[in-house]
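Progress against Task 2.4 (sequence-to-structure conversion) is shown through the following example record, which the project officer requested during the mid-term review.
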Amino acid sequence: MKQPRGQPAHKPTDETRKTAETLSGLGLPLTQIAVLIGKGIDVKTLRKHYEKQLEEGKAKANSQVTKNLFQKCMSGDTTAQIWWTKTQLGWKDTSRVEHTGADGKDLTVTMSKNDASL
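Structure tokens generated for the chain above:
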């Protein structure tokens, strides 16, 4: 009888599902989560078996960060408020500089021959 080739199929457990969710929430890259989940699984296998846990972990973490940021904004943290207005309200720090001559006319540059040869 022929022996199966390669590694046995990966079988998720409650423990590995919880680990995947937790590590995803902490922002660990998928390659590193795969290493910590099981012997020799790759990112493709990780996604196949743990897609729901990876998404939920990230969503829960983002929700907590958003909640904390909102609380800082409401307590008067100016830096948090500025960041919020830029990301949530579309505010921007932009400066528009126009270079014009007198009365808004084109600029005129005058230089000597010595300056021009530089």
